[in-house]
Amino acid sequence: MIEGNWVTWVIYVTTFSLLAHLIHVNQLLSRTPDEVRKLSGPRWTPEQLKETYKRIKERPIDYTDKLPPKLERRYIVTGGSGLVGGFIVLQLLTRGTPPKSIRIVDIRRTERNDMQRGPATEVDFAQTDITSRASVDAAFKRLWHPSVAQLPLTVFHTAAVILASERSAFHYGFPEAVNVKGTANVLAAAQAAGASIFSSTSSGSISIRTVEPFVAPWAGAPRHFWQVLDVRDFDEPLRERDGYFGNYPASKAVAERMVCGKDREDFRTGCIRPANGVYGNPTDNTVGDPLSRAVLPTWVGHIVQNFAHGANVAIGHLQQEAALALPPLKSARCSGRPFVVTDPNPPIRYNDLYTAIKTLSVHPFTTIPVPPIVILLLSHAVEIYSDLPYKFPFLRPILPALKGDIKHLKPGLLSICTHLVVVDSEAMKPVAEGGLGYTGVLTTLEGMTLEILEWNEEHVDDVKTRKVYTTSISLAETIQKLRSVGNGVAH
User: Fold this and answer.
1) Domains assigned to the chain
2) For the 3-beta hydroxysteroid dehydrogenase/isomerase domain, which residue ranges apply (predicted)?
3) In which band, very low, low, confident or very high, does the pLDDT at 490 lie, cut at 50, 70 and 90?
4) d(Cα 373, Cα 22) in Å, to the nearest integer?
C-alpha cells in the first residue's frame, strides 16, 4: 500500500513538474525582450494605415529616379516570373532597358498582374528546369536580337525553392537539387555564355541560429530567441547542414559560397541576402498568404522582425550590378561577398501586419491566438510522423501523408519566426568603402499598404471571393510532386 502511494506520488510530482515547465516555456516564447522592443518602431494605428492607404492611392509611389542608371547590357533573370526576379525585370524596363535585352528563365510563366501588361509582356521567356544542365544551357544559348547580341551579359539568379520549416536530412535532396546544383548549372552556363556579372539572391536566413526553447527553469529566455541578421557568418567556416535551422538556409549557404567563390576580374559575382520575410505581391507568403485567408491561427503576433519589399531587394541587385560593373580595382572592394538588405525602417511586429489587413482589406480577416507551446509540441510530433516512412519504409503504404498547412508545421518554423533584427549597414556603405550604396525605396508601412491596395483593386469586381495564387511554398510542393513521379523540374 505504501509502495503504491509512493509511485502515485512520483507520477503526480513528475506530471506537475512537466506541466509547470511547459507553462514556463510558453511564457518565455510569448514575450518580446526589452532589447527588441526598444529597437522596434511604434505600433501601426488604424488612422495611420488609412492615411497611408489614401496617400498611395491618390499619389502612387514612383521611385524611378532612385534606380541606378541604365547600363548598356543584356540580362538573363532566372526566376524572373517570381517575386524578386519579377521586380528586377520591371525595374530594368522602367529605367529604359528594352524588352529585347531581357530574358526570363523560369519553370513557369508569371501570375503577376503587373507583368501581364506593357513592355513586360514583350520580354523573352525560356521555360527551364535549372536542375538540368542541358535545359539551362539551352536557355542561355538561345539567340538574341541582332541589335543587342554583342552587349555584355549580366545574370540575375533569383530562382530557388523555399520550404523553410523542413530540417530533416531525409528531405535535403530536393532543396539541394534546386538551390545548390541548380545554382551550379546556372553559374556554368553564365560563364560559358560570356557573362561578366553574376548577382544571386541569397537569404538572410543563412545567419539564423536554431532557437532552443527547452531551457532550464531559471533561464530568462530561450537560447537564440532574438537575433541580429548580418553577414558576419560569411567570414566563418561553412557550417554542416545540421548547423542551420533548416534545409533551406543550409542549401542557400552552400550556393552563396559557390557564387562568391567564382569571383574574378572578368566574372564579377556577389549575393544579396533579403531580410527574413520578402513580400510585395499577392503571390508572396508574408502578406499575400494571410490576405487570402478569412481566419489565421497565429502564435507570432508579438514577434518583431524586419521585412524586405521585393522592390527594395531588386534595387539592391541593381546597385550591386552597378558596383560590379566598375573597373576591376574598384569593383573588387565589394565583389565576391554577400550583402544583407531590408526595408528602410525599424522592425515591426506581426501584429502590425495583422492590423493593416484587418483595417484595409476588402475582405474580413480574423486572427486566432495560439499558445506557442502548442505549436512547439505539435511541430515535433509532425516532424516525427513525417520521418517515419523514411526511417521505416515498410510503413509507407500504411501511414497516410499529411496534407494542408499542418505538413509544414515543423520545428524550423520556431527559428524563422523568432525575433529577428536586420543590420544592413554594410550594404549602405558607399562603393568606395566596400558597400553598395544601398537605400531602400519603400518602407514596410508603405510596402504592405501598397500590397493590400493592389489586392483590393484585384477584387473590386468580386469582394465575396479571394483569388488563389501560387505562392513560393505551393510552387515548391508542385515541383516536388512532379520530381517524385519522374518529371524532374525545378524553379
Assistant:
1) 37-367+405-481 (3.40.50.720)
2) 76-357
3) very low
4) 7
